[in-house]
Structure prediction request, 130 residues.
Amino acid sequence: MTHGTNLLLTVRHPADSLAVVTVSGELDVDTAPELRTKATELIGQGCPHVVLDMAPVEFCDSSGLNALIAIVQHAHERGGSLSVAAAPDQLTRLLDMTGVGDLMPVYAHVDEAVAHLGRTATATEDTLDA
Prediction:
């Protein structure tokens, strides 16, 4: 678990190459770098597919959106992916209005993202470079 000023990140690994990061609190100029760092570390440690469980996010500003863009680019450069799941209505609207949601799959529920990526992770598991 990682604690920021107003951010709590909890990580679980439902598949070998998949990490689900539950993002709790505020995603802003003070906390967005922490999320970016954690996600890029996970990708570098052999979890190229990251799902962000955004259900507990209370606030997200442009810094949070920029972190999502940076993470998705980092993941794609390494053959991975970033998905957003269970985003609150306000965040979903922000993703839609800014076009950031077009850069990554956005799922209504974490289970949907995990089911989809679990198949992807399993299918590509043998082709990942260590």
Remarks:
- Residues 122-130 have pLDDT under 50 and may be disordered.
